[in-house]
């Protein structure tokens, strides 16, 4: 089983927001970087990831569990990107707080 590192700018999406989503998890949309999308598409349901705050904090602030595999990104009108485990394709990354 792989382990991953998910980076997020806390001003855009913080650990507190992730935790607030509870067991339903949260979609990660708007990922346009090809390399990031490639790794997100490789994520499998049940795998875990460190949730890392970038910027001034620069710290791992939690652990999430992948609860859905990559699928089309609902925010991409071109339908070329993914979200929740893929980035630049059309899909989402569903994560659940381990706490």
Give a structural overview:
The chain is of the alpha+beta class and 99 residues long. 15% of the residues lie in helices and 26% in strands. The protein has two helices and four strands. It has helices spanning 15-20, 34-42; strands at residues 3-8, 48-53, 59-68, 94-97. It has a four-stranded mixed sheet. A hairpin with a 5-residue loop joins β2 and β3 (59-68). The longest helix is centred in the middle third of the chain and has 9 residues, at 34-42. The radius of gyration is 12 Å and the shape is globular. The two termini are 20 Å apart. 35% of the residues are buried. Mean pLDDT is 75; it is low at 85-99.
For the terminal residues, how far apart are their CA atoms?
Answer: 20 Å
Q: Largest sheet, described in full?
A: 4 strands, mixed
Task: Give the total of beta strands.
Answer: 4
Number of helix segments? Answer: 2
| Share in helix | 10-25%
**Average pLDDT, all residues:** 75
Biggest β-sheet: strands ordered side by side in the sheet:
1-2-3-4
Q: What low-confidence regions span 5 or more consecutive residues with pLDDT below 50?
A: 85-99
Portion in beta strands: 25-35%
What is this entry, summarized?
This protein has 99 residues and is α+β, with helices and mostly antiparallel strands. It has helices at 15-20, 34-42, and strands at residues 3-8, 48-53, 59-68, 94-97.
Which labels suit this protein?
99 residues; alpha+beta; disordered C terminus
């Amino acid at each position: 089983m792989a382990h991953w590192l998910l980076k997020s700018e806390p001003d855009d999406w913080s650990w507190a927001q992730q935790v607030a989503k509870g067991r339903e998890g949260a979609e990660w949309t708007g990922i346009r970087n090809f390399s990031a999308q490639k790794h997100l598409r490789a994520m499998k349901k049940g795998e875990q990831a460190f949730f890392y705050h970038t910027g001034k904090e620069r710290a791992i602030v939690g652990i999430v569990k992948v609860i859905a595999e990559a699928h089309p990104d609902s925010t991409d009108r071109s339908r070329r990107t993914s979200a929740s485990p893929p980035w630049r394709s059309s899909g989402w990354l569903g994560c659940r707080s381990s706490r």
